[in-house]
Structure formats: structure tokens, C-alpha cells
Fold:
Amino acid sequence: MPDKPLIEVRGLKKHFPVKAPFLSGEKLLVKAVDGLDFNIYPGETLGLVGESGCGKSTTGRLLLRLLEPTQGQVFFEGQDLTALKQQTLKAMRRNFQMVFQDPYACLNPRLKVKDILNEPLATHHIDPKSRKKMILTLLEQVGIPKSYMDRYPHEFSGGQRQRIGIARALSLNPKFIVADEPVAALDVSIQAQILNLMKDLQQELNLTYLFIAHDLSVVQYISDRIGVMYLGQLVELTRTEKLFDNPSHPYTRVLLSAVPVPDPDHVYEASTIVKGEIPSPINPPSGCAFHPRCPHAMAVCSREKPVIKDIGDGHKVACHLY
Amino acid sequence: MGETWYRFRKNKLAFTGFAILMVFVFLAIFAPLIAPYDPFTMHVEDRLQTPGSNYLFGTDQFGRDILSRIIHGARISFQVGIISVGISLVAGLALGIAAGYYGKWVDMVISRLIDIMFSFPDIFLALVIMAILGTSLTNVMIAIGIVYTPIFARIARGATLTVKDNAYIEAARSIGVGDFMTILRHILPNIMAPLIVQTTLSFGFAIRSEAALSFLGLGVQPDVPSWGIMLNEGKEWLELGWWIAFFPGLAATLAILSFNVLGDGLRDALDPKLRNESE
Amino acid sequence: MAEVILDVQNLKTHFRTHQGIVKAVDGVSFKVHRGETYALVGESGSGKSVTCMTVMGLIGKKKDEVVTGDIYFKGTNLTRLSLEDRRRLRGKHMAIIFQDPMTSLNPVYTVGTQIAEMPIIHEGSDKKSAWQVAVEMLRKVGIPSPGDRARDYPHQFSGGMRQRGVIGMSLSLDPDLLIADEPTTALDVTIQAQILDLMKDLKDQTNAAIVMITHDLGVVAQIADHVGVMYAGTIVETADVRTLYKDPRHPYTRGLLNSIPKPGSKDRLEIIKGQPPDLHNVPKGCSFSPRCPYAHDRCQEAPPVVEVAPGHQVACWLMKEDQDHA
Structure:
């Protein structure tokens, strides 16, 4: 692993105010992201998994400063994005792009494909003469026939739209891409096409990905390292193989064993079906947020928030067991 | 587009409305060529003629041909409609998009302003504005334009809020597209459907309001052949010549009704979800 | 062999639209026995949901919905019954669970009231005993302190609990047939595991026949006894669950199984090329042929359904040719 990270995240927090019950006078906060520290290295794919409300999508948006953090910094190639002025940031944006979950909502229905792909080029003042050629190259890279340039998004299937969304993200030749559940809305056979496409493009263009998903099988297929989030915090972060061979946080184990396996002979450990529901991020449990559902909960877990620490060879876990 | 046109064509009522309006538009454009007489010429010998072969819709107390005045009145009505609705649409879009897109205090200020304007009965608001500006055709159009601005602003604001949540807006932001271009390219084209419907309906409102203001004597000058003025003058002569007020009233009713059915038809065609729910 | 609860024969559901006829379901046949879970798997547009909505009688009432074929429910041909008779069957003898539990729950009534309504309407129970049934059902589906929670409104339940509530409601009258349309798709994976576990338990207790619609091959492997794989309105392969995963024959089934990432494996995914067909314009003959790596001239004709082993049927020319050679 190269020493110099592309992205460094330091003490990142995002708290959203929510409407309190009428006249109660309370000020409620959703602690969507509550203290994250991690690095992303050039050329790697960091997968971020977790269930709804764990803050994985918010994290992706904070990294691109599509949301303003409540606290903490995000460094891109050593430069603090959170300290940049809007104008500088706009120019910087060509370096990091996003691929969205919903292939239907991510393309403006009133624009033709060529106009969708032209927009980033025009915004960043790319020479108009070379744009057409660039658009053709992009379409070829994502496997959309050139002749479809003049079509509108509704004339495409979900998978094709996702390809167009990827082409748009690639148009400015970025170094870093946040992919927020890019295959969650797609059919199984199309999912595989998009995952393979993303892998190929990564190799070809030396891209770095933050790949956000709830589906562990998908994340493990594409990621070099995986971070597991629970209620706004990173509970485990390690290399993909290690996470599957030696899941160390009790929540990771629960999550792994809950994934339905496409094999009728697979034996599910009945004991790992976790009891209870995911708590509300408005009022998360004290100490370790997972302790009310944790089979290994100890007295200390409800009092003290565990710090994420290296348990050897870059395998990081936030749990009092270690 | 094909889908929308298909649904619209199937709606016979809306299509009829559309056809009637096209006839009015034709009359308005070619009024001097079509009208049998000059609308201002007073045929003194032929005062208060009943509808007949010489004067199809009869003449008024000055001997002016009613039909010719109605045909020329269509010009006034459509002129008022286009300009006043144009004012409402542009002002409403600007206010509504600003409120919806920027949110926070901008939304607070604009939304309260809209609320205040909505709290006055519209004809009362128009009367107040006319009283301040003075009577003239231009001022009628300005007054009507102002009165109907809040409707457009409210619709534009709501539509902007919905569209703003789409990922393509966020995508534009992540590319570095500025606010103005985002609004122009991504918000505006996607909020037009409900506004087109409202524009159509508002034409009807505008024609009605002009007629009402003129009827109350706060609209255009009395000699202008506006449907409202004709109604106003005709009411004095109802016992001697019912046709003086009847035909302009009929024209106004027909035009307003046509705009309304056309607007309803467009709403159904542009937003099939609404129609399915009501079925 | 257990009693046949549902026997669908050559079911076709076509929708008339102004762009032409959409053949959403185009000749589907399957049987489901008492105590058995039959999974209909397929991607969006494969017709799996429309099949079940047609079986329930929720599609086929309007004039642009054309249903042909036969649906036998415990020996009665449902297509011959009046709308009123079919409505009476729904709820009491056949129940459906949707992906979004809120489609089945009315937000202005308590969960208990809504469950209690079932025995009141269908069995003429009095309010008190119906309420007891409701509380008992909530206990059965694993809602803690069901007596209190029955007085809660749906919005006070979490997503997983709502789905439990809906399952309780649909089982309250002990139906013979339960159709579950993607019941866990909207849920988080740990909650999905809970619900699947619950459904497995309940299946053993109720002895109903279950038809499960899903796109998730992991869920199918976990819960189904028999599987039908749907593509563009037809069942292309049907077998018991073990055979289907261990010995898939239809090129589409194989492609589908190969395109899911396996836990712990990073081998490059084999993909099915192309896009699912546009239902306005389904390819002639075998609808999978434009995407099929083995397609040849004969695939322009509709493929025969070949029984490759007892209970294992495949609609593919390759199977027919294999058989002819043997």
C-alpha cells in the first residue's frame, strides 16, 4: 500500500437538526456521522457497508463536500477541502465525482445524453472543439452505442442509465469517485455488468473508489478494504479477505451471517440472528451504540464509547472486547 | 411527449375547448378583415337594432355593430390575457424558484409575502391596484398580472422543492455547475408541466378579471370594445335591447369555459397520476 | 403427496395499451402443494408480480386487462367465479403480503384493530374474541408485549415490526394460500434475517401453501422448496430448490446464478450480456435468445418445455436436442 493517502478523513461529524415535537422547545439532532477517521489510498476501492441510518451515504457526501461537515476535516491530496472557498472548490470538483443510486433520478429527463455529458465539460471550460470527441470516447468506455447520443434518458433501461451516470462522472477525468449504492436499484444480471464495468474502468483509468452499499456480497466483490458502519460510526475497518475470514466486531459477525447465501445447503447459525431493531440515530444508546443488541455486551459497553484501534496488521476495530 | 399528446387527444372536451380558442385567436388576429363593420362607427339611424340579417348580433344604443365589437373585443381580451398572464408567470417563476431553491430566509420572506397577497380577495386587490395606478388598458394588465402572481409563485415553489430532491441536481452540484445554470437547465424545464396548466387556467381568470374591472368602471376607457365594457354599458339597456349585453357575455363565458376545460385536459394529459387517483 | 392448493395452467395476462399489447404473463403453469413454499424468481418485468396479482384476482377486472388460462384453488376454477366470490376468498382463504407493509396497513387505525377486523368480517367474531386473536397473532409473529403494542398505530412500529404485523394479519384467518411479494426487499439485512426466520417457523405451524416472489437468489435458497425462474412472462425453468442451484440447465438460470457475487470470492463475474426485453416488443420464439450465448436458428421458434428429470422442467431447445441425441 502506498504511504501517501489520496483522501484523509479526520474527526468527521455531521449532525442534522430535526424538527422537535410542536412547542416542546427541544432541540433534536440526528448524529448521522459521529466521528470518523480513515484514509483512502490511490488506486484502491474502499467499501463502506452498513444498514439504513448508519450514515454511509452522508459520509460519501461529506467527502465530496456536497454537505458541510459539523466538525472535522477531509483532505484531498493533502489539501483541506473543508477550508476551501466555494469558487476554489468548484474548480477542484473535477478531481472527485459521484455515481448515484437511482438511475432514474440521476439524469435530467429533459436533456439528451450528449447534453448530459457535455455539461461537465462546458462547466470546466474544456475547449468546445475537443468535446465531441471526448463524449464519444466516454460513451465507448461505458458501452453505450454512439448512435444513442441524441436520445433522452427515458429511452434507456436502468442499467444503461447507470452507465450514462458513470460516463458523466468520468468526463472530467477524476481521480476519486464516490459510488453511492450504484447497483442497488438494478436487476441481478445488470448489477454484474455494472460491477465489472467499474472494475475495468478502475484499472484502465487508475481510479480510486469509495463504494457505498448495503449488500455485503457486492461490496466484497469490488473492494480492497471494507469499513463497517453502525449508527454514524466506523466499527471495523480492514482488508476484505480479513473481514470475511476473521470478522472481529460482533456487529460485523451478525451482518455477515445475516446475508442470504445463494446455496440451499448453506447452514445459517441460528444464534447469530440479532435481536431487536436498529436504534434511532436521534437518541443513540450510550457507550457503544451496538450494546443493546450485542451478544457479548459487558457492563463497560453501556458506559464508555469504544475507540477504534489497530488489533494488528491494519485491522481496526472499535469494541471493548479488544 | 407522444404519450401526453395521446392522452390529450382522447379527451374530447379539452380538445373542443382548444378548437374554440383557436377560432377566437383567429378572430382576434384577423379582426379588421372579418368584422363586417368598424367597431367605432355609429350608425345613428340603426340604433338598437334587433339581431337580424343586417346586423347579426344587433346594434347598441349608439348604433354600433355588436358582432364587430365582439370580434375586436377578442383582441383586447387575448391581449390582456397574454400580457397579464405573462407578467404573473415570469414574476411567479422568479419568486417561486428563488424560494424553493434557496430555502431558509429567502423562502421565509417570499412565502409570507405570498400568504399576505393570498389573504386578499383577488378582485379587491385588483381594484386597489387600479385605484392607485389609474384606469388604462396597460394598468389593467399590470393589476391582473400582480393579482395572479402568488398562484404561480406557490406552484413554482412546490414544484422546485420536489425537483430539487432529484439526484441530477446533486450531480450538477458535484460537477461544479453554478446556481444560475442549475436553475436554468435542471429546475426550470422540469417544473413547467404544472405551470403550463396554471397558465391556461389563468388566461380564463385574466379575461374574466378584465371584464369584471371594466364592468365596474375601473378597467379600460368606455369607447374601447372590451367585452367587460360592453357588458357594463349593456346592463343599462337590458329592457330595451337584451342582445347588447347578452352576446359579449356569451363570448366571454365561452372563452373562459374553453380555457378551463383545456387547462383541466392538459393537467390530466401531463400528469396521468392525478387522473388515475381520481378515477 | 400433499394436497394441491394452487394449480395455475397456461395463465396469460395481457395489458392493452395504446402502444400495443403488453404480454406481462404469457403462458405460465405451476402447482403449489400444502405446506410447500414455491418461489417465483425473476428480474423486474419478468411478470412474477403480475402472475400473483392475477392469481389473487387483483388484476383482470378492468377491460384493458385480459386474463386467459385457468387458476385452480383447491380444485375450484377461480376464473369462473364472480368478483364477489373471489373477494370473499381473499383474506379468508388466500392472503397476500406486499413489499411495503404500509400498503396493507391503514395509518389511522391501530394495528390491533386492523388485525381484529379480519375475524370480524370473515368469521363474524365478536369484538372481544377478535381482539384476543389479534394479540395472539402479534405474539406469534414475535412482537414483544403484544397486548400493549396492539394499541399502537402503524407509524409507531418500525419497518420490520410493521412487516411482522402484516404477516400476523394475513395469517390470522389461517389461509390455505399465502402470497408474499418481495416481503423482505425493503428491509435491512439483519431485519430481513429475522423476518425470513419467522416465515420459516410459521410455515411449519400453519401448513399453508406459500408463493414467494423475489429477485434475491439468496432468499430463495434459504426459504423455498420449489423454484420457478421467470423471464419475460414465462417460466423458463422449474425444479426443486437443490436441483436448481446444483444443476441449473436453462442458460438464463445459469447466467443469473453466475452473475451474483459469492461471499468470499473475487472471481470475475460472468455476465449476461444485453438488457431485459421491452415487453411491448418481446423477441420472437425464445425471448431470451438475443442474450443467450447458445442461441441458434431454432430459437426463433418457441422452445418446448422439456422434463430433464422428474419435476425439473426447462423451456429450451438445447434440452430438446440433448434428449433427441440420447
